[in-house]
Amino acid sequence: MNDYERIEKVIRHLKEHYVEQPDFRELARIAKVSEFHFHRLFSRWAGVTPKSFVKFLTAQHAKALLRESQSVLDASLDAGLSGPGRLHDLLVSVDAVSPGEFKNYGAGMEIRYGFHPTPFGTCLIGATSRGICHLSFLDGDGGSAVVSELKSDWPKAVLRRHPQSTHALASRIFERGGRAGKLPVLLVGTPFRLKVWEALLKIPSGRVLSYRDIARSIGDSHACRAVGAAVGANPVAYLIPCHRVIHETGIVGNYRWGQARKLAMLAWENGSQNANEARAAAGGLSLQGARSESARF
To answer: Which of 19, 140, 194, 287 has its CA 20 to 30 A from that of 223?
Structure first.
């Protein structure tokens, strides 16, 4: 059992029993480590103590984050795409994708991919010469399902397993306190989904928003269900932070790669928020060659 698997088991237990305020002994038993080692392991991984994480799980705390985040989102929207104080600096460029690629689903394109350890379990990263086109997490199947998904998204591209090409990307994405710099991303989606993904990029690290907040930010407050579908279809996990979207009631809700992993991401970001804010001024994420294709979905 690796560190993430230990923490995931604890998070699942805390989610169900946080009202009971479980003690260290019980949590350490679930993680199958000593009490001393558990406290160090959890604090090092999440950046917060187990007690602080229990507070994070409460509905009151989630609602407080939601109220605070609304003003942050408004400020980001008012500032425009180049505004300061955000984790990600968004740049959409449609002319990076040729008409042939648009029509042929990646024909003639090479996608190099690799599996890499992260704070949230093993991930699969797929990248072209122009940017990351896929990021997903494994769930105990050896990776066959996520590779199949990558092939389905880019059926005519040449896939080459080459972890040496994606190792540096994984390090830049998941190294706590590191400087990610510009990370170009290549996407395919309808115009609506691209708008939703752009809105997700404006949610600061350590904050959450509701589906309705996102719908409102793109000018259609009644499109909550469609926003939910777009959030669930995000092909680039974590980088496009769909894990920062929750229900209006403060309930965290489901997540494409597992609810426990979503809670883990939020806790990890909450613990390293100061480091992320410091990194925001140095650069962020760039959606290079985001392509719109209404016929695909």
So the answer is: 287
State which amino acid sits at residue 250: G
User: Would you say 125 and 236 are in contact if contact means Cβ atoms under 8 Å apart?
Assistant: no
Task: Give the percent of the chain with pLDDT over 70.
Answer: 67
Handedness of CA 71, 74, 76, 79 (dihedral sign): negative
Q: Does residue 224 contact residue 171 with C-beta atoms inside 8 Å?
A: no
Cα 24 from chain centre:
29
Q: Which two tokens stand for residue 286?
A: 């760039």
Residue 1: pLDDT above 80? no
Is there a contact between 8 and 267 (Cβ–Cβ < 8 Å)?
no
What the block records as the tokens of 181 is 């710099």
Q: Which is catalytic among the residues 123, 133, 224, 242?
A: 242
Is 242 designated active site?
Answer: yes
pTM of this structure: 0.69
